[in-house]
Design goal:
The structure holds 2 protein chains of 2 kinds. Chain A is an all-beta fold. Chain A has strands spanning 4-7, 10-14, 19-25, 32-38, 44-50, 56-59, 62-67, 72-77, 86-94, 99-100, 106-111. Classes of the chains: A mainly beta, B mainly beta.
């Protein structure tokens, strides 16, 4: 059974810092991996999808990498801003049904 | 843009009531999912469906049922609501993977916060 761990559970940084969020998963036989952002009381917003044939994906100040063999993914946020404050979740996608298993998330606070 | 719409953002129901949570997506996605999210437990899959009239149990199906009569609509049903079903419910949809083109990106609705008294 797939298990997903995200480290750290919470992070507080001053504005402008570059930071790395870590995600590890136990079953490396995944197809894709998706990173999400969740604001309090809201649904999940898709940030990046890394396909199985890719090693990384970039969108603006976000860069996500995937190492299937070691069961790890990282989300890199450059020049963090207060608006980046949210919970970030990773979810490897297993099987053709697209079933995702989620980590507990990393709650990020960026202080002005 | 993909849009997943959940009919109710906030609901308050009484123990024993029948509750319907509706979800509609506008991108002709085959897969649809219902998750619940609770503090300390994260997101847990209740049911999913990869075609009309098809359904599969997720990790915590007990106390729930689903209906998928049309491709765009996936309903979660609580036959007799209980207080331990107080939670945030999230609907999501995705397309299937086709050949060498990996899709499967998951899109979520805004969530329905259910309180059972």
């Amino acid at each position: 059974k797939q298990e997903v761990t995200q480290i750290p559970a919470a992070l507080s940084v001053p504005e402008g810092e570059n930071l790395v969020l870590n995600c590890s998963f136990t079953d490396s036989a995944i197809y894709n991996l998706q990173w999400f952002r969740q604001d309090p009381g809201k649904g999940l917003t898709s940030l990046l999808l890394i396909q199985s044939s890719q090693r990384e994906q970039t969108s603006g100040r976000l860069n996500a990498s995937l190492d299937k063999s070691s069961g790890r993914s990282t989300l890199y946020i450059a020049a963090s801003q207060p608006g980046d404050s949210a919970t970030y979740l990773c979810a490897p996608i297993s099987g053709n049904t697209g079933k995702l298993i989620f980590g507990q998330g990393t709650t990020l606070q960026v202080k002005p | 843009d993909v849009k997943v719409t959940q009919s109710s953002r906030y609901l308050v129901k009484r123990t024993g009531e029948k509750v319907f949570l509706e979800c509609v997506q506008d991108m002709d996605h085959e897969n649809m999912f219902w998750y619940r999210q609770d503090p300390g437990l994260g997101l847990r899959l209740i049911y999913f469906s990869y075609d009309v009239k098809m359904k599969e149990k997720g990790d915590i199906p007990e106390g729930y049922s689903v209906s998928r009569e049309k491709k765009e609509r996936f309903s979660l049903i609580l036959e007799s609501a209980s207080t331990n079903q107080t939670s945030m419910y999230l609907c999501a949809s995705s397309s299937v993977r086709r050949g060498a083109v990996d899709t499967g990106e998951l899109f979520f609705g805004e969530g329905s916060r259910l309180t059972v008294l």
